[in-house]
Specification:
Blueprint (H helix, E strand, L loop, with lengths): L4 H14 L4 H11 L3 H24 L18 H13 L4 E5 L5 H12 L5 E4 L8 H5 L14 E4 L10 H7 L4 E7 L12 H14 L4 E5 L18 E5 L13 E5 L1 H11 L15 H31 L3 E3 L11 E4 L3 H13 L21 E5 L11 E5 L5 E5 L4 H17 L8
Parallel strand pairs: 2-3, 2-4, 4-5, 5-6
Antiparallel strand pairs: 1-7, 6-7, 8-9, 9-12, 10-11, 11-12
Helix pairs in contact: 2-10, 3-4, 3-10, 5-9, 10-12, 11-12
This protein binds pyridoxal-5'-phosphate (PLP).
Length: about 425
């Protein structure tokens, strides 16, 4: 029997109250949600375009059941692995791709892309200010064993203008004859700058190449994939790099990373990942292919869910009077949302809420810890099926003022919504936010 809309709404409210969300918090959520319909529609249309993009690549490459076979040992003639790489390359419109479980994380993928394409004496430039925290040790900005600096690669960065734009004059001045590569981070990461759109990154790349045509432009694409209808590789990036436990893994990939780009760049990366002489020919898939394929197939809609969660969080916390970044109404080119919570207590309460809403480890209380590669203690909430996965609903933040939490993920929009409501609930319970409805 069909139930009226009223009955469904009443059941929804009851489901939330039975799950620990008070009536006022639930009502605030519904009120905020009613303002976001158009945004969510647009996100769904972008997901549709990206779904077709992925499907076209899978159909063109005639993906079949045979591609899901496990290989072991050296992994020679791994047709499933090689075809997946063609699917990635066709989706992101690049000549070539390397997509491997042997790439352990995003930092590893970035380290490979850099170290494979730089040689002693070369100069690496970041024209977008500081890179992601973990790259500081890769590059040698913070002294670290095995860094690029130890191998004689020099580095400099050009800060963004106070308005957050590219400082073209300073960038031109920073490019030297030995400037071999530029590293361009798309997402804001743990900083308060804005995330760049693929088109903006395209302008920067065009400028860099107008000054020095042979400069290799690598884009750290982490968290950006599928948030737009285009990627930086559509705008001249020589390599785009990311992690499979973020957007492109669709929540199913249990590990891995990718580098998509020009044939020459990707070949060098393959030789660095395995060995000169072996390159891409080795690397058994150990049975991971179904998760990689199906995850990539799901990635456009999973990314859309996460993006809806980010926008909902921004709108909720704006309404509660917190500073959020980006603003709820801003255009988005990644899935990260930060909220300045103002105190360690509020940061812990937020993370407790995300944790309490999780499908896994919901009964745990997140505590700050000294995470390898990061400067300050970090608190993390993650009740994920894949350990450390941040396409799954997760939150983290360094314990330093302004106590900003970085919130991302949500394999389903419904879970993201519940997590955000729970975070608000825990703030209310801790006396760090007031909701009267
Ligand atoms: C996550 C991330 C990285 C590093 O990836 P890990 O998988 O955590 O090593 C690098 N850059 C950006 C922008 C990221 O978001």
């Amino acid at each position: 029997m069909e139930r009226s809309e009223e009955t469904i709404n009443a059941m929804l409210r009851t489901s939330y109250t039975e799950s620990g969300i008070s009536e006022p918090v639930f009502r605030l959520g519904e009120e905020v949600l009613s303002t976001l319909k158009e945004r969510f529609d647009r996100i769904d249309r972008i997901a549709e375009i990206n779904q077709l993009k992925v499907l076209s690549a899978m159909r063109k490459n005639r993906v079949s059941e045979g591609h899901f076979q496990a290989t072991t040992g050296y992994g020679y003639n791994d047709l499933g692995r090689d075809t997946l790489e063609s699917v990635y390359a066709d989706t992101f419109h690049t000549e070539d791709a390397l997509v491997r479980m042997q790439i352990t994380c995003g930092t590893h993928a970035l380290n490979l892309a850099l170290s494979a394409n730089l040689r002693p004496g070369d100069h690496l430039l970041s024209p977008v200010g500081s890179p992601y925290d973990t790259l500081e040790e890769v590059i040698g900005i913070r002294e670290s064993e095995g860094s690029l600096a130890e191998y004689g690669v020099t580095y400099s960065q050009v800060e963004l203008t106070p308005e957050g734009a590219f400082d073209y004059d300073a960038i031109r001045a920073a490019i030297r004859p030995e400037t071999k590569m530029a590293t361009i981070q798309r997402s804001c990461g743990y900083s308060s700058r804005k995330t760049f759109s693929p088109a903006e990154i395209g302008e920067l790349i065009a400028f860099l190449k107008s000054v020095k045509p042979d400069i290799i432009c690598m884009v750290d694409n982490c968290y950006g994939e599928f948030t737009d209808t285009v990627e930086p590789s559509d705008f001249g990036a020589d390599m785009i790099v990311g992690s499979l436990i973020k957007n492109p893994g669709g929540g199913l990939a249990p590990a891995g990373g990718y580098i998509c780009g020009t044939h020459a760049c990707v070949e060098r990366v393959a030789k660095r990942l395995t060995s000169p002489g072996l390159g891409r020919e080795v690397g058994a898939n150990l049975g991971i292919n179904p998760a990689f394929y199906q995850g990539f197939f799901l990635a456009p809609t999973v990314t859309a869910s996460a993006e809806k969660g980010a926008i909902f969080a921004a709108a909720m916390y704006e309404k509660l009077g917190f500073r959020v970044h980006p603003a709820a109404a801003a255009d988005r080119f990644d899935i990260i949302q930060s909220v300045e919570l103002g105190s360690a207590e509020a940061l812990k309460a937020f993370c407790l809420g995300i944790q309490a809403a999780a499908p896994v480890d919901s009964y745990l209380t997140p505590e700050p810890w000294d995470m390898p590669g990061y400067d300050d203690p970090v608190i993390m909430a993650a009740g994920a099926f894949v350990s450390g996965s941040s396409i799954e609903l997760s939150a983290d933040g360094p314990l330093r003022p302004p106590y900003a939490v970085f919130f991302q993920g949500g394999i389903t929009w419904q879970h993201a919504k519940f997590g955000i409501l729970m975070s608000v609930q825990k703030l209310v319970d801790a006396g760090a936010a007031v909701v009267v409805r």
